[in-house]
Amino acid sequence: MAEKKHILTYAGLKQYEDELQDLKVNRRREIAQKIKEAREQGDLSENAEYDAAKDEQRDIELRIEELEKLLKNAEVVVEDEIDLDKINIGCLVRVYDMEYEEEMEFNLVGSTEANSLQNKISNESPVGRALIGRKVGEIVDVETLDGIIQYKILEIQRV
What we know:
With 159 residues, the chain is α/β, with parallel strands linked by helices. It is 38% helix and 28% strand.
């Protein structure tokens, strides 16, 4: 079975590459030092620091493996080539919520980069799916658990 492609913006790619580099270079060195210091304390069977350091080492190695897999299957959206006539991944979209009469901004990203606290919504989310391919001036219906939300698309920009 083919691996799922992870759609990333250039900023997302850079963020994951930096995290991987930090884990491989800095965090591995730090955890090796912690393990060494814990070993020097003697009996490993009752050494909580040693156990904690080994658990941390396992978590770091799992994250490294996860990041390497993600980056291996990454497909980067070239922001300069984004067509600003219609919404796509890598766009910053300003919409007007028809019910609450307020403007909102969404940064449309692949599911790997999605973070609602930073207004980064996935192309696979209900809002993302509804917005993809739409143009300025269109009114979009988004189906949610609470019913239909309507957004009017005000502006499409590059991030």
